[in-house]
Protein backbone atom coordinates (compact mmCIF):
# COMPACT_ATOMS: atom_id res chain seq x y z
CA UNK A 1 0.00 0.00 0.00
CA UNK A 2 1.22 3.51 -0.71
CA UNK A 3 0.47 6.64 1.28
CA UNK A 4 -0.31 9.71 -0.80
CA UNK A 5 -0.28 13.26 0.56
CA UNK A 6 -1.54 16.09 -1.62
CA UNK A 7 -3.28 19.41 -1.08
CA UNK A 8 -6.88 19.64 -2.10
CA UNK A 9 -8.42 22.62 -3.72
CA UNK A 10 -11.73 23.74 -2.36
CA UNK A 11 -13.90 26.63 -3.53
CA UNK A 12 -17.28 28.06 -2.63
CA UNK A 13 -20.11 27.20 -4.98
CA UNK A 14 -20.80 29.47 -7.89
CA UNK A 15 -23.04 32.32 -6.93
CA UNK A 16 -21.60 32.50 -3.45
CA UNK A 17 -18.39 34.07 -2.29
CA UNK A 18 -15.39 32.79 -4.20
CA UNK A 19 -13.25 31.75 -1.24
CA UNK A 20 -10.58 29.11 -1.75
CA UNK A 21 -9.39 26.75 0.98
CA UNK A 22 -6.10 24.92 0.62
CA UNK A 23 -5.63 22.19 3.20
CA UNK A 24 -3.86 18.92 3.77
CA UNK A 25 -6.32 16.06 3.27
CA UNK A 26 -6.67 12.92 5.35
CA UNK A 27 -4.32 10.09 4.49
CA UNK A 28 -5.08 8.51 1.09
CA UNK A 29 -4.28 4.98 0.02
CA UNK A 30 -3.92 3.58 -3.48
CA UNK A 31 -3.32 -0.13 -3.84
CA UNK A 32 -1.25 -1.48 -6.69
CA UNK A 33 -3.24 -4.69 -6.31
CA UNK A 34 -6.39 -2.71 -7.04
CA UNK A 35 -4.84 -1.57 -10.28
CA UNK A 36 -3.78 2.01 -9.60
CA UNK A 37 -2.65 2.25 -13.23
CA UNK A 38 -6.11 1.76 -14.70
CA UNK A 39 -8.27 2.79 -11.81
CA UNK A 40 -11.30 0.81 -10.71
CA UNK A 41 -13.50 -2.21 -11.00
CA UNK A 42 -17.00 -1.20 -12.00
CA UNK A 43 -19.73 -2.19 -9.56
CA UNK A 44 -22.41 -3.69 -11.87
CA UNK A 45 -25.33 -2.66 -9.62
CA UNK A 46 -24.08 0.92 -9.34
CA UNK A 47 -23.45 1.07 -13.08
CA UNK A 48 -26.96 -0.18 -13.83
CA UNK A 49 -28.53 2.45 -11.55
CA UNK A 50 -26.34 5.21 -12.98
CA UNK A 51 -27.30 4.35 -16.55
CA UNK A 52 -30.98 4.12 -15.58
CA UNK A 53 -30.88 7.51 -13.86
CA UNK A 54 -29.17 9.24 -16.78
CA UNK A 55 -31.63 7.73 -19.26
CA UNK A 56 -34.54 8.75 -17.02
CA UNK A 57 -33.33 12.35 -16.82
CA UNK A 58 -32.66 12.75 -20.52
CA UNK A 59 -35.82 11.01 -21.71
CA UNK A 60 -38.04 14.00 -20.88
CA UNK A 61 -35.34 16.66 -20.37
CA UNK A 62 -37.57 18.30 -17.76
CA UNK A 63 -36.97 19.56 -14.24
CA UNK A 64 -39.11 16.70 -12.95
CA UNK A 65 -37.24 13.98 -14.84
CA UNK A 66 -33.89 15.30 -13.65
CA UNK A 67 -35.16 15.49 -10.05
CA UNK A 68 -36.36 11.88 -10.23
CA UNK A 69 -32.99 10.82 -11.61
CA UNK A 70 -31.19 12.52 -8.73
CA UNK A 71 -33.36 10.61 -6.26
CA UNK A 72 -32.31 7.35 -7.92
CA UNK A 73 -28.66 8.35 -7.66
CA UNK A 74 -28.99 9.43 -4.04
CA UNK A 75 -30.47 6.03 -3.19
CA UNK A 76 -27.65 4.33 -5.09
CA UNK A 77 -25.04 6.40 -3.26
CA UNK A 78 -26.49 5.57 0.16
CA UNK A 79 -26.43 1.83 -0.51
CA UNK A 80 -22.84 1.61 -1.75
CA UNK A 81 -20.07 0.59 0.63
CA UNK A 82 -17.27 0.78 -1.94
CA UNK A 83 -15.90 4.32 -2.22
CA UNK A 84 -14.99 3.95 -5.88
CA UNK A 85 -18.64 3.18 -6.60
CA UNK A 86 -19.66 6.18 -4.51
CA UNK A 87 -17.31 8.29 -6.57
CA UNK A 88 -18.89 7.12 -9.83
CA UNK A 89 -22.34 7.98 -8.49
CA UNK A 90 -21.16 11.46 -7.49
CA UNK A 91 -19.74 11.96 -10.98
CA UNK A 92 -23.12 11.04 -12.47
CA UNK A 93 -24.96 13.38 -10.08
CA UNK A 94 -22.63 16.25 -10.94
CA UNK A 95 -23.18 15.60 -14.65
CA UNK A 96 -26.95 15.88 -14.37
CA UNK A 97 -26.68 19.05 -12.27
CA UNK A 98 -24.35 20.64 -14.82
CA UNK A 99 -26.67 19.78 -17.71
CA UNK A 100 -29.39 21.83 -16.01
CA UNK A 101 -26.99 24.73 -15.46
CA UNK A 102 -26.77 24.11 -11.71
CA UNK A 103 -23.00 24.47 -11.47
CA UNK A 104 -23.01 25.08 -7.73
CA UNK A 105 -24.50 21.66 -6.94
CA UNK A 106 -22.32 20.01 -9.58
CA UNK A 107 -19.16 21.46 -8.06
CA UNK A 108 -20.25 20.41 -4.58
CA UNK A 109 -20.60 16.77 -5.72
CA UNK A 110 -17.19 16.87 -7.39
CA UNK A 111 -15.58 18.28 -4.27
CA UNK A 112 -17.06 15.46 -2.21
CA UNK A 113 -15.08 13.01 -4.35
CA UNK A 114 -11.89 14.62 -3.08
CA UNK A 115 -12.98 13.80 0.48
CA UNK A 116 -13.37 10.09 -0.23
CA UNK A 117 -10.54 7.65 0.51
CA UNK A 118 -10.80 6.47 -3.05
CA UNK A 119 -8.86 3.51 -4.36
CA UNK A 120 -9.63 4.73 -7.87
CA UNK A 121 -7.25 7.31 -9.27
CA UNK A 122 -9.32 7.39 -12.48
CA UNK A 123 -12.33 8.80 -10.62
CA UNK A 124 -10.15 11.44 -8.98
CA UNK A 125 -8.75 12.55 -12.33
CA UNK A 126 -12.22 12.60 -13.91
CA UNK A 127 -13.48 14.74 -11.02
CA UNK A 128 -10.59 17.19 -11.42
CA UNK A 129 -11.17 17.38 -15.16
CA UNK A 130 -14.88 18.10 -14.66
CA UNK A 131 -14.25 20.59 -11.86
CA UNK A 132 -11.77 22.58 -13.96
CA UNK A 133 -14.21 22.42 -16.88
CA UNK A 134 -17.01 23.95 -14.83
CA UNK A 135 -14.71 26.65 -13.49
CA UNK A 136 -13.72 27.52 -17.07
CA UNK A 137 -17.34 27.66 -18.18
CA UNK A 138 -18.21 30.00 -15.31
CA UNK A 139 -15.13 32.22 -15.84
CA UNK A 140 -13.50 31.27 -12.56
CA UNK A 141 -10.21 30.91 -14.35
CA UNK A 142 -7.91 31.07 -11.33
CA UNK A 143 -9.76 28.14 -9.75
CA UNK A 144 -9.53 26.17 -13.00
CA UNK A 145 -5.78 26.66 -13.05
CA UNK A 146 -5.39 25.61 -9.41
CA UNK A 147 -7.48 22.48 -10.00
CA UNK A 148 -5.43 21.47 -13.04
CA UNK A 149 -2.19 22.07 -11.13
CA UNK A 150 -3.31 19.88 -8.26
CA UNK A 151 -4.33 17.07 -10.59
CA UNK A 152 -0.82 17.10 -12.07
CA UNK A 153 0.66 17.31 -8.57
CA UNK A 154 -1.34 14.29 -7.41
CA UNK A 155 -0.12 12.17 -10.32
CA UNK A 156 3.47 13.27 -9.78
CA UNK A 157 3.24 12.37 -6.09
CA UNK A 158 1.95 8.91 -6.94
CA UNK A 159 4.75 8.42 -9.44
CA UNK A 160 7.33 9.25 -6.80
CA UNK A 161 5.65 7.13 -4.14
CA UNK A 162 5.46 3.95 -6.19
CA UNK A 163 8.86 4.46 -7.79
CA UNK A 164 7.69 4.35 -11.39
CA UNK A 165 5.02 5.33 -13.84
CA UNK A 166 1.41 5.47 -12.83
CA UNK A 167 -1.06 5.66 -15.68
CA UNK A 168 0.20 7.20 -18.92
CA UNK A 169 -3.40 7.71 -20.01
CA UNK A 170 -4.39 9.60 -16.87
CA UNK A 171 -1.22 11.67 -17.04
CA UNK A 172 -2.03 12.58 -20.65
CA UNK A 173 -5.50 13.71 -19.54
CA UNK A 174 -4.08 15.81 -16.72
CA UNK A 175 -1.56 17.50 -19.02
CA UNK A 176 -4.19 18.17 -21.69
CA UNK A 177 -6.44 19.70 -19.04
CA UNK A 178 -3.67 22.08 -18.01
CA UNK A 179 -2.97 22.82 -21.68
CA UNK A 180 -6.63 23.73 -22.23
CA UNK A 181 -6.60 26.00 -19.17
CA UNK A 182 -3.51 27.79 -20.48
CA UNK A 183 -5.10 28.13 -23.90
CA UNK A 184 -8.23 29.70 -22.41
CA UNK A 185 -5.98 32.08 -20.47
CA UNK A 186 -4.38 33.15 -23.75
CA UNK A 187 -1.03 31.56 -22.90
CA UNK A 188 -0.52 29.73 -26.20
CA UNK A 189 3.20 29.11 -25.79
CA UNK A 190 2.74 27.79 -22.27
CA UNK A 191 -0.06 25.52 -23.50
CA UNK A 192 2.28 24.01 -26.08
CA UNK A 193 4.52 22.48 -23.41
CA UNK A 194 1.61 20.41 -22.09
CA UNK A 195 0.68 19.07 -25.53
CA UNK A 196 4.19 18.25 -26.74
CA UNK A 197 4.50 14.57 -27.56
CA UNK A 198 0.78 13.95 -27.18
CA UNK A 199 -0.07 13.01 -30.74
CA UNK A 200 1.75 9.69 -30.73
CA UNK A 201 0.85 8.90 -27.12
CA UNK A 202 -1.61 6.10 -26.43
CA UNK A 203 -3.53 8.48 -24.20
CA UNK A 204 -4.29 10.85 -27.09
CA UNK A 205 -8.01 10.21 -27.43
CA UNK A 206 -11.22 11.86 -26.26
CA UNK A 207 -10.65 15.16 -24.46
CA UNK A 208 -6.88 14.91 -24.94
CA UNK A 209 -7.22 14.72 -28.74
CA UNK A 210 -9.90 17.43 -28.78
CA UNK A 211 -7.95 19.92 -26.65
CA UNK A 212 -4.73 19.27 -28.56
CA UNK A 213 -6.63 19.69 -31.82
CA UNK A 214 -8.01 23.04 -30.65
CA UNK A 215 -4.50 24.19 -29.77
CA UNK A 216 -3.26 23.30 -33.27
CA UNK A 217 -6.38 24.87 -34.79
CA UNK A 218 -5.58 28.15 -33.02
CA UNK A 219 -2.03 27.86 -34.40
CA UNK A 220 -3.50 27.39 -37.89
CA UNK A 221 -2.13 23.85 -38.22
CA UNK A 222 -5.40 22.80 -39.83
CA UNK A 223 -4.40 19.43 -41.23
CA UNK A 224 -3.12 17.99 -37.96
CA UNK A 225 -6.04 19.55 -36.04
CA UNK A 226 -8.48 17.84 -38.40
CA UNK A 227 -6.84 14.46 -37.77
CA UNK A 228 -7.12 14.92 -34.02
CA UNK A 229 -10.77 16.00 -34.18
CA UNK A 230 -11.56 12.93 -36.27
CA UNK A 231 -9.65 10.74 -33.82
CA UNK A 232 -11.58 12.20 -30.89
CA UNK A 233 -14.90 11.58 -32.64
CA UNK A 234 -14.05 8.00 -33.54
CA UNK A 235 -12.63 7.05 -30.16
CA UNK A 236 -15.48 8.57 -28.16
CA UNK A 237 -18.15 6.94 -30.31
CA UNK A 238 -16.61 3.54 -29.53
CA UNK A 239 -16.62 4.00 -25.74
CA UNK A 240 -19.18 4.05 -22.96
CA UNK A 241 -18.81 6.11 -19.83
CA UNK A 242 -18.32 4.60 -16.37
CA UNK A 243 -17.23 1.22 -17.76
CA UNK A 244 -13.44 1.64 -17.61
CA UNK A 245 -10.85 4.05 -16.27
CA UNK A 246 -9.98 5.40 -19.70
CA UNK A 247 -13.47 6.71 -20.42
CA UNK A 248 -14.87 7.70 -17.02
CA UNK A 249 -15.76 11.40 -17.20
CA UNK A 250 -18.32 13.92 -16.01
CA UNK A 251 -20.09 17.25 -16.54
CA UNK A 252 -19.02 19.33 -19.53
CA UNK A 253 -16.04 17.01 -20.10
CA UNK A 254 -18.06 13.79 -20.46
CA UNK A 255 -18.18 11.62 -23.56
CA UNK A 256 -21.30 13.23 -25.06
CA UNK A 257 -19.78 16.70 -24.64
CA UNK A 258 -16.48 15.54 -26.12
CA UNK A 259 -18.14 14.09 -29.20
CA UNK A 260 -20.25 17.23 -29.64
CA UNK A 261 -17.21 19.47 -29.12
CA UNK A 262 -15.06 17.58 -31.62
CA UNK A 263 -17.83 17.60 -34.23
CA UNK A 264 -18.44 21.33 -33.82
CA UNK A 265 -14.70 22.09 -33.88
CA UNK A 266 -14.28 20.08 -37.08
CA UNK A 267 -17.14 22.00 -38.67
CA UNK A 268 -15.50 25.31 -37.73
CA UNK A 269 -12.19 24.10 -39.16
CA UNK A 270 -13.74 23.20 -42.51
CA UNK A 271 -15.30 26.67 -42.62
CA UNK A 272 -11.90 28.24 -41.94
CA UNK A 273 -10.51 26.21 -44.87
CA UNK A 274 -13.34 27.39 -47.13
CA UNK A 275 -14.94 23.95 -47.38
CA UNK A 276 -18.39 25.34 -46.71
CA UNK A 277 -20.48 22.39 -47.90
CA UNK A 278 -18.58 20.08 -45.54
CA UNK A 279 -18.76 22.67 -42.76
CA UNK A 280 -22.51 23.05 -43.10
CA UNK A 281 -23.05 19.29 -43.07
CA UNK A 282 -20.86 18.75 -39.99
CA UNK A 283 -22.27 21.69 -38.03
CA UNK A 284 -25.82 20.63 -38.85
CA UNK A 285 -25.02 17.17 -37.47
CA UNK A 286 -23.62 18.82 -34.32
CA UNK A 287 -26.79 20.90 -33.96
CA UNK A 288 -28.98 17.82 -34.26
CA UNK A 289 -26.85 16.01 -31.70
CA UNK A 290 -27.11 18.91 -29.24
CA UNK A 291 -30.89 19.07 -29.61
CA UNK A 292 -31.18 15.31 -29.06
CA UNK A 293 -28.95 15.34 -25.98
CA UNK A 294 -30.02 18.55 -24.28
CA UNK A 295 -33.25 19.79 -25.85
CA UNK A 296 -34.00 22.54 -28.37
CA UNK A 297 -33.55 25.43 -25.92
CA UNK A 298 -30.33 24.41 -24.20
CA UNK A 299 -27.43 26.92 -24.37
CA UNK A 300 -25.30 24.37 -26.23
CA UNK A 301 -27.79 24.66 -29.09
CA UNK A 302 -27.33 28.43 -29.10
CA UNK A 303 -23.56 28.03 -29.25
CA UNK A 304 -23.72 25.80 -32.32
CA UNK A 305 -26.23 28.13 -33.99
CA UNK A 306 -23.63 30.87 -33.48
CA UNK A 307 -21.01 28.68 -35.18
CA UNK A 308 -23.34 28.13 -38.14
CA UNK A 309 -24.07 31.84 -38.43
CA UNK A 310 -20.34 32.60 -38.41
CA UNK A 311 -19.83 29.96 -41.09
CA UNK A 312 -22.33 31.75 -43.34
CA UNK A 313 -20.59 35.04 -42.57
CA UNK A 314 -17.23 33.61 -43.64
CA UNK A 315 -18.78 32.07 -46.75
CA UNK A 316 -20.35 35.38 -47.79
CA UNK A 317 -17.04 37.20 -47.29
CA UNK A 318 -15.01 34.64 -49.24
CA UNK A 319 -17.50 34.21 -52.09
CA UNK A 320 -18.36 37.93 -52.20
CA UNK A 321 -22.00 37.07 -51.77
CA UNK A 322 -24.70 38.07 -49.33
CA UNK A 323 -26.60 35.94 -46.88
CA UNK A 324 -27.79 38.65 -44.52
CA UNK A 325 -31.24 37.19 -43.99
CA UNK A 326 -29.87 33.74 -43.18
CA UNK A 327 -27.23 35.17 -40.85
CA UNK A 328 -29.70 37.46 -39.11
CA UNK A 329 -32.13 34.61 -38.51
CA UNK A 330 -29.43 32.36 -37.08
CA UNK A 331 -27.99 35.09 -34.84
CA UNK A 332 -31.44 36.01 -33.52
CA UNK A 333 -32.23 32.39 -32.76
CA UNK A 334 -28.85 31.87 -31.08
CA UNK A 335 -29.24 34.97 -28.93
CA UNK A 336 -32.72 33.86 -27.91
CA UNK A 337 -31.57 30.35 -26.92
CA UNK A 338 -28.54 31.75 -25.08
CA UNK A 339 -30.95 33.92 -23.07
CA UNK A 340 -29.07 37.13 -23.74
CA UNK A 341 -29.77 40.02 -21.36
CA UNK A 342 -31.23 43.28 -22.68
CA UNK A 343 -28.81 45.63 -24.41
CA UNK A 344 -29.43 48.10 -21.61
CA UNK A 345 -27.56 45.77 -19.24
CA UNK A 346 -23.86 46.40 -19.79
CA UNK A 347 -21.97 43.51 -21.32
CA UNK A 348 -19.35 42.78 -18.66
CA UNK A 349 -21.85 42.39 -15.85
CA UNK A 350 -24.61 40.94 -17.96
CA UNK A 351 -23.85 37.25 -17.66
CA UNK A 352 -21.33 35.07 -15.90
CA UNK A 353 -21.08 32.25 -18.41
CA UNK A 354 -21.06 32.19 -22.22
CA UNK A 355 -20.51 35.94 -22.42
CA UNK A 356 -17.84 35.67 -25.15
CA UNK A 357 -20.21 33.50 -27.19
CA UNK A 358 -22.92 36.10 -26.73
CA UNK A 359 -20.46 38.82 -27.71
CA UNK A 360 -19.64 36.91 -30.89
CA UNK A 361 -23.31 36.37 -31.70
CA UNK A 362 -24.25 39.99 -31.06
CA UNK A 363 -21.10 41.27 -32.75
CA UNK A 364 -21.88 39.28 -35.89
CA UNK A 365 -25.54 40.26 -35.74
CA UNK A 366 -24.57 43.91 -35.34
CA UNK A 367 -22.62 43.84 -38.58
CA UNK A 368 -25.64 42.51 -40.47
CA UNK A 369 -27.64 45.46 -39.13
CA UNK A 370 -25.07 48.21 -39.65
CA UNK A 371 -25.07 47.71 -43.43
CA UNK A 372 -28.84 48.33 -43.44
CA UNK A 373 -29.34 52.09 -43.33
CA UNK A 374 -32.63 51.94 -41.44
CA UNK A 375 -31.16 49.67 -38.75
CA UNK A 376 -27.68 51.15 -38.43
CA UNK A 377 -28.32 52.76 -35.03
CA UNK A 378 -29.57 49.45 -33.62
CA UNK A 379 -26.49 47.73 -34.99
CA UNK A 380 -24.10 50.27 -33.49
CA UNK A 381 -25.70 49.83 -30.07
CA UNK A 382 -25.42 46.06 -30.32
CA UNK A 383 -21.79 46.31 -31.46
CA UNK A 384 -20.93 48.47 -28.47
CA UNK A 385 -22.51 45.91 -26.13
CA UNK A 386 -20.54 43.08 -27.73
CA UNK A 387 -17.22 44.92 -27.49
CA UNK A 388 -17.85 45.67 -23.82
CA UNK A 389 -18.78 42.06 -23.06
CA UNK A 390 -15.78 40.58 -24.90
CA UNK A 391 -13.13 39.26 -22.48
CA UNK A 392 -10.94 36.95 -24.59
CA UNK A 393 -7.25 37.49 -23.83
CA UNK A 394 -5.77 36.19 -27.08
CA UNK A 395 -7.67 38.12 -29.72
CA UNK A 396 -10.06 41.02 -30.10
CA UNK A 397 -13.71 40.68 -31.06
CA UNK A 398 -12.88 42.01 -34.55
CA UNK A 399 -10.14 39.38 -34.93
CA UNK A 400 -12.51 36.64 -33.76
CA UNK A 401 -15.07 37.67 -36.37
CA UNK A 402 -12.41 37.86 -39.11
CA UNK A 403 -11.45 34.61 -40.80
CA UNK A 404 -9.58 35.56 -43.96
CA UNK A 405 -6.55 33.60 -45.08
CA UNK A 406 -4.38 36.65 -44.43
CA UNK A 407 -5.37 36.73 -40.75
CA UNK A 408 -2.72 35.36 -38.42
CA UNK A 409 -5.26 34.50 -35.74
CA UNK A 410 -8.27 32.23 -35.79
CA UNK A 411 -10.95 31.74 -33.14
CA UNK A 412 -12.25 28.35 -32.07
CA UNK A 413 -15.42 27.89 -30.03
CA UNK A 414 -15.18 25.08 -27.49
CA UNK A 415 -18.72 23.86 -26.84
CA UNK A 416 -17.61 21.88 -23.76
CA UNK A 417 -16.71 24.96 -21.74
CA UNK A 418 -18.67 27.54 -23.78
CA UNK A 419 -15.57 29.63 -24.38
CA UNK A 420 -13.84 31.20 -27.37
CA UNK A 421 -10.23 30.03 -27.63
Automatic annotation (TrEMBL):
Transmembrane segments: none annotated. Coiled coil: none annotated. The gene is LOC102598776. PANTHER family: OS05G0457700 PROTEIN. GO terms for biological process: meristem maintenance; protein localization involved in auxin polar transport. It comes from Solanum tuberosum (Potato). This is Kinesin light chain. GO terms for cellular component: mitochondrion.
Amino acid sequence: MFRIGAKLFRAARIGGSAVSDFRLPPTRFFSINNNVNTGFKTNPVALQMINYAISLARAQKSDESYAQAQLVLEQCHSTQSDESAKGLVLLAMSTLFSERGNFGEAIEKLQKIQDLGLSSLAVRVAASEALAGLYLESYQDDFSSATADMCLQLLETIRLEIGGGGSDILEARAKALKGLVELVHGNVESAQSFFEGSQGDKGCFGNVALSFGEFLHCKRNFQMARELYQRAMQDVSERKDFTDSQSVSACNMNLEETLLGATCALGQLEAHLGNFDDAEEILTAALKKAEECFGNYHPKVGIILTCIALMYRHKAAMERSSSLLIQEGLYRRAIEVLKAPPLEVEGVGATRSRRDILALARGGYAETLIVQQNRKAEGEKMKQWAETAWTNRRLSLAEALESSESSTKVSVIDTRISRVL
